[in-house]
Amino acid sequence: MREYTELEIVDSLKDIDSILAIRSHVSFLFEDNRLSRRFIGGSPISKVGLNTIKFLTQGHYEGVSLGEVKPGTKLELFEGGKKEVKISDAIIQKRYFEKPSKKSWSITEEINPSDCIVYQLEIRLSNTEKECLELGKTPLQMEDKWFSFVENNVIRFFRSWTGIEVFQAEISQIAHDNWVINELRSTKNPKINFQDKKSLFEDLVKYQIMRIEKIIK
Fold it and tell me: 131: which DSSP letter?
């Protein structure tokens, strides 16, 4: 997923166009001391109001929940990773996530449903857990090895470095607040060699749900 934060710029040392022209990372320093160690810095990408700028941020990557840093939170902006060049004071107006899609990453190889390895399993999901999977995972740095998204109730996992699809599984509804994954398809590509693909998939699903549940609370 991608995270966006809209900020009202106040008492700025730069005009809006100058802030939008910044190419280096922008650091956020919170007025609330309890948040001083939390980081959701990012890059300015567009103007959405008279004094409001939308930033591409990464608070979710640092585990900062929506309830922790929310509309009304006051902060200072600094150019670069170090707090040396102050840009402005600001107030968060909105913070939200965008689900990834197939176009969100460079994909080189997809699983062929007629020529793949099939595993039987049973992973039950609530509506909330399914929503966590739908928010997906979009890599932010080299250490992020997986890209995932949900399309037409099919969850798909790709290796981020190669763009090769490793896992694909349908999420089926069995009740109002009850979903299940009971069949897993995996690539036969010899370059992808995991000892136990079924366990790996289960761990990826479990970790993604756990990580995102903490963020959206």
Answer: H
